[in-house]
Amino acid sequence: MNPPAPRRRGPHTTRDAIVWLAAYLAAVTVPLFALLPGPAAGRGFTWDFAMALGYAGLAMFGVQFALTARFKRATAPFGIDIVYYFHRYLALAALAVALGHYGMLRATNPAALGSADPFVAPPHMTAGRVALVLFALVIASSLARRRLRIDYDAWRVAHAALATAAFAAALWHLFGAGRFLDTVWKQALWAAYGAFWVLLIAWVRVARPWRVARRPWTVAEVRAERGRVWTLVLEPAYPTEGLRFAPGQFAWLALRASPFAMREHPFSIASSAERPRRIELSIKELGDFTSTIKHTRRGETAWLDAPYGTFGIDEHPAAFGYAFVAGGVGIAPIMSMLRTLADRGDRRPLVLFYGNRVWERVAFREELDALAQRLDLKVVHVLQEPPPGWTGERGFVTEDVLMRHLPVTRHRFEYFLCGPTPMTVSVERALDALGVAAERVHSEIFDWV
Ligand SMILES: Cc1cc2nc3c(=O)[nH]c(=O)nc-3n(C[C@H](O)[C@H](O)[C@H](O)COP(=O)(O)OP(=O)(O)OC[C@H]3O[C@@H](n4cnc5c(N)ncnc54)[C@H](O)[C@@H]3O)c2cc1C
Fold this sequence. Notes:
The chain is an alpha/beta fold. It has helices at residues 14-33, 45-67, 72-75, 80-108, 110-113, 123-143, 152-177, 184-213, 331-343, 365-374, 399-405, 421-433, and strands spanning 216-225, 229-236, 250-255, 265-268, 279-284, 301-308, 321-327, 350-356, 377-383, 393-394, 413-418, 441-444.
């Protein structure tokens, strides 16, 4: 059976981005407008403003759940990495707004807050205080996770549990305080918000994992590459034409843990998009999970939640040519693009700058030589510690290195960068200095979580 043609995806537009930003603003501000009419409003500006801050803070925290729910259409115009950054900074903003609600009441109307003693205070007021403390804890533990060396998987479970508890406590506070739920339609509005969040959590924690669990994959091969990289080859263990994806996209992999266990890891799909029944993930040994890949046995079951991301050539199908800059295992999504271009018989000019420390550890270097025969591809290896007699580029991918190898038509190329953040940042600057338009430069970041 011939594999199906991969789904060609058009570029995501600014209009999509504006629509989703408007949807975000609406979700956050609708509860504020709900305050305006009704008998409870009009107790003075500071009182109304304090209430408005409370509503806005709660709505902002609510939307946080949606931001990391992996909704493809909502994340596509921005890129999932940007959405995660947005999630991080909006959490701080939401906490500031919620603290503003509390602080303003404490300053202007302390009687309304009543006693802080949980044995004396009404339960919904204690719930409000608990929500504030829990939200602060969720944010502090996330910001300090790496510094405190908190295990990622344990943090993720605690993060989800604490955030849900904080949000439930905040809703309890809202319904208990109830001053602004004086009309049926306001109650309906907040009931609808509450139902939306319950459904969202049910989707993220139950429905989506269930869908993923019904589509198992089998490990067909575990291949050692150079540079402590292991390629996991997966084939579908359920009736399907395969996984349709665009080259450069990534998958969430669950291996030796059910999709319900919240222990998935993101990896770029390294194989050709023209071969959807044989998915390859090339994984560098780095930490707790990635160091176990080499012990994976043929026949083991894996699950893929995929595809995600907008990094890739199919977002820019009309480009005159493509240039790639990879550092280390950042080559994985670029291998997918090169393999796909080769399978499609593409004849456009391509240049790959590939930075590594030593020659012996350059993953896929033999296959890149073979791809250079099938494609109009120039491969430029850049080594930090080249072997004796090396005549190629040495050091890092700098402006000079780019200048030496890019063709004069470089302004018409699309650029794809994937590697350590310092490398991507310095190459972005170098391309800017060479006059390449910023909208032609696309970066994939591996450490946004
Ligand atoms: C879009 C994307 C594509 C990626 N593609 C590749 C690839 O093709 N090849 C490759 O080798 N690596 C890739 N990575 C990086 C890879 O996901 C991490 O190296 C891996 O999850 C680290 O897990 P660990 O337990 O081995 O490392 P640890 O040392 O335990 O963790 C190191 C850091 O990795 C991150 N991390 C750990 N577990 C997870 C998780 N479950 N989900 C998200 N992040 C986690 C955390 O920030 C953690 O602090 C990609 C990352 C992203 C975001």
